Amino acid sequence: MPQTGRGALSDRPDAELRLPAEGAYVSVLRTTAAGLAARLDFTLEDVEDLRMAVGEAAAIVLETASPATELRARFWLGGRTMTVTVDAPSDGTATIDVDSFAWQVLTSLATSARVSGRDERLAITVALEAAPLEAAR
After folding, report:
1. The 112-118 sheet, strands edge to edge
2. pTM for this prediction
3. Which residues contact 25 (CB under 8 A, 6 or more apart)?
4. Residue-wise pLDDT tens digits, 12-70
5. Helices (H), strands (E): how many in the chain?
6. Which fold has domain 15-136?
7. 82, 87, 94: which is closest to 71 by C-alpha?
8. What's the DSSP call for residue 25?
9. Alpha-carbon distance 10 to 77, whole Å?
10. Statement: residue 6 has pLDDT above 70
11. For residues 1-11, b (16+ Cβ closer than 10 Å) or e, as one string?
12. I need a surface site. Which of 12, 26, 121, 123 has the fewest CB within 10 A?
């Protein structure tokens, strides 16, 4: 995984996708995540988990996105792990309900998930570490 010496993600993602911040485009984001995961040889189950986690992250971000803006997804690929950050401009007061069903689904699917807000953008970062192919048999 592209990381700095401190274990943080590098500033430059391996792929970036920008879409209108509308629910109709979440399927494009989910399909992109699944395609990238397939290229990393994720199992079908892991591909589906990532697809659903990215969809949930996008849905949560879209709830707080400013109208007529864009949704951005950045992908860091490496080994058996994919990290995805989904963000969009918000009014700066957006909060995430960590007790919501959507957040519970997201955190149960992903290896890790976190929320951050910076420069009036709400971001959710999810990482999924795929099971080794031998373990899937």
Report:
1. 15-20, 70-78, 81-89, 121-129, 112-118
2. 0.86
3. 19, 71
4. 899 999 999 999 999 999 999 999 999 998 999 999 999 999 999 999 999 989 889 99
5. 4, 5
6. Heat Shock Protein 90 (3.30.565)
7. 87
8. G
9. 11
10. no
11. beeeeeeebee
12. 12
Average pLDDT of span 93-97: 76
User: Sorting pLDDT into bands at 50, 70 and 90, what band is 2?
Assistant: very low
Residue 78 CA to residue 2 CA, distance in Å, equals 7
> What is the bridge-based pairing of β-strands 81-89 and 112-118?
unpaired
Q: What is the amino acid identity at position 68? A: A
pLDDT digits (tens, 9 = 90+) for 96-137: 888 899 899 999 999 999 998 876 889 999 999 987 766 555
Token pair listed for 112: 């890790």
User: Rounded to an integer, what distance in angstroms lies between the CA atom of residue 61 and that of residue 123?
Assistant: 7
pLDDT score for 1: 36
Residues 128, 49 contacting (CB under 8 angstroms)? yes
